[in-house]
Structure formats: structure tokens, C-alpha cells
Amino acid sequence: MKALFRGVCMMVPDFQIIKKVKMCSAGYTDFDVLSSKFYALYATCKEQLSNQRHYDWGLRNILSVLRTMGATKRENLDKPESLLVYQTVRDMNLSKLVAQDVPLFLSLLADLFPGMTPPPKGNYPKEQAILKSIVEKYGHIYHEDWVTKVIQLYETTRVRHGIMLVGPSGGGKSCIFKCLKETLQEYHNIVYKDIRFNPKAIRAQEMYGEADNQSGEWTTGIFAALWAKYNSRNNAYNTWIIADGPVDAIWIENLNTVLDDNKILTLEPKISLRNENDSLQIRLQAVETQLNEIGSFIGDKENLVGKCHYLLKYAKVE
After folding, report:
1. Distance from the Cα of residue 296 to its chain's centroid
2. Which of 30, 122, 231, 299 is the most buried if burial means most Cβ atoms within 10 Å?
3. What CATH number corresponds to the domain at position 25?
4. Among residues 84, 112, 140, which one ends one of the domains?
């Protein structure tokens, strides 16, 4: 059997060097020490925190955190760099941790930054006042833990282009979407619309589109049609396209290039007499938003870990 297979060499990326170079390019002067602490934190989290399917300590998560570190540094040039790293790493990872892992994660941060007072959490008094009135309008309870999740989702949408809201049925996911949407609508004075569909209720080909084997005619899928419809810069409203259903590798696999730095959705090649390699690409630009609300994972765990931040912002059909 060994003679039938070709040997392949693969290299594991050196995360510490990547972090050091990215932090240096972002303007951090103490990048050597801070990158070592960042590397030690993620290595320890991978070993000591519980094994959850939605945890991602890989390169995709690291690059998102590093980009946010750079933006935080540019906005706070007068603050200590260690404080900015502490705050960014904490705020970008705390929302995805289960309850039993939060104390351990915070204690690891305290050990890596000894003697430092934890930076304050984000404060949004205007948004929270609007949120409280909306919660009372719907007769819900303004519970602090639930409000924290709303704020975390709001903060995540500002720095991520991919988000999933994970939880069991009845856990309050739809209420978080609804209340946050109305809060932003009142705060920004812009209409927000939400469009829902269940990706497991249709085939993957019906979701993205497919080419007829006989005629070669391309049929646009539901997802692609929704995206094209709400992709006009002339729209006087913002759109949230919500994929409400379980996640598996069948329908989410086409979104790999969307979730990484390419931010392009490439569908299967269209059968054409002129160009057999012609394909439909959807590039992230500036008009709409997609959120995923899921209750469970199906299929291979490793194929899903990197896909847990999935908010498709601003698409343009080319």
C-alpha cells in the first residue's frame, strides 16, 4: 500500500514568529515580549481549557486578534502596550468561552500580566439605555448575563467578518438578534432588516446555485439570490441575512474563502462553451450582513472549528 501513495511534506506555521512580525508591523515597540505572552496564552488555553467544538486557537483566530490589536494601538497611542494586548485578547475571546472556562482564562491572563489591573470592559451607556427600553417593550427581563452577551455580540460585529451565535433552543439567541437589531436601528437612525433561511432545509446546490448537466445553464441559488438582492449601495437600510439552523461541513464548506482573509465566495465553475473555468465569485464590499444562529454541530469537528465566526459583511457579485 505504501508504494501506491506519494509522500507529502507539510510544515506547521510558527505562530510565535507570525505574532511577532504582525505586532511589529502594527506599531508595537515591545513586540518581542508581548508576542511571547500571546503565544504562551494560546498554547496554555489549547491544553488546559475544556475541549469545545467552537473553540478556535488557530491561525484564523490569531490573525483576527492581531488585526484588532493594531486598530486598538492606533486609537490609543498614549496607553501602555501591555494593557492594550491584555484588553484585546480578553475581549475577543471571552464571549466564546463556556462558563467553567472563564475563571481559568482570566487567571491565565493575570499570570501573564502580573501586577496589572485588568482593563475596564467596554462601556456603551447610550446603546444600553436604548436596549433596556426595548427589552421592557417586549416584556423580557433585563438580566445582566444576557445583556453581557448582547454587548459581546455588538463588539464582535465591529471587528469580525464572521460570527456564529451558538446555543440550545430557548437560550435567547433570537431575542439577542432582535433586541440588538432594534437598538442599532434606533441608535444609528437606520432601518435594519433581517432575512432568515434554514440551510438544512435545502440542498447545498439549491443554496448556492448549480449548473444543469445537459444545457450548461446556471441556476442561481437561494443564498446567492438573497445576497445579490440586498447588495445595492443605494439601499436605505442595512440587511442581516441569518442562516438559522445546524451547521455541517456540507453547506458551510463553500464559505472557507469567505472566512479567511480572501473574503470571497467562489461557487462551482459554470459550464460554458467559451470558458470552462468561469466561476461565480462574491466579494465582500459594503451593503449587507449575515449572521448564523445555530443550535448544534453536525459532522467532523475539525472542519467546523475554524468556521465559528461567520458574519458575511458587505457582499458584491462580480
Report:
1. 17
2. 231
3. 1.10.8.710
4. 112
State the Rg of the chain over Cα.
Answer: 21
Compute the 3-state secondary structure of the chain and give helix, strand, coil in percent, each to the nearest 5. Answer: 50, 20, 35
For residue 93 the three cell numbers come to: 475571546
In-domain check, residue 84: yes
**What grid cell was written down for 124?**
456603551
**Is residue 117 in a domain?**
no
- The helix (H) or strand (E) run that includes residue 312 is strand 312-317
Whole-prediction pTM value? 0.72
Cα 265 → chain centroid: 15
Do residues 64 and 165 both lie within one domain? no
- Structural domain that includes position 257: 125-317
Comparing CA positions, the residue from 102, 177, 80, 74 lying closest to residue 134 is 177
Q: Is 163 exposed, middle or buried (0-12, 13-18, 19+ CB in 10 A)?
A: buried
For the ranges 19-33, 141-155, 267-281, 289-303, the one whose mean pLDDT is highest:
19-33
According to the model, what pLDDT value does residue 83 have? 93
Boundary (domain end) residue, out of 112, 146, 170: 112
Q: Residue type at 151?
A: I
Q: How far apart are CA 160 and CA 155, in angstroms?
A: 9
Is the pLDDT score of 311 beyond 70? no
Cell of 187: 441608535
**pLDDT in the model for residue 276:** 33
Check if the beta carbon of residue 220 is closer than 8 Å to that of residue 228: yes
Assigned domain for 182 exists = yes
Between 114-123, 267-276, 280-289, 290-299, the lowest mean confidence (pLDDT) is in: 267-276
Is residue 218 within 8 Å of 280, Cβ to Cβ? yes
Share of the chain above pLDDT 70, in %: 80
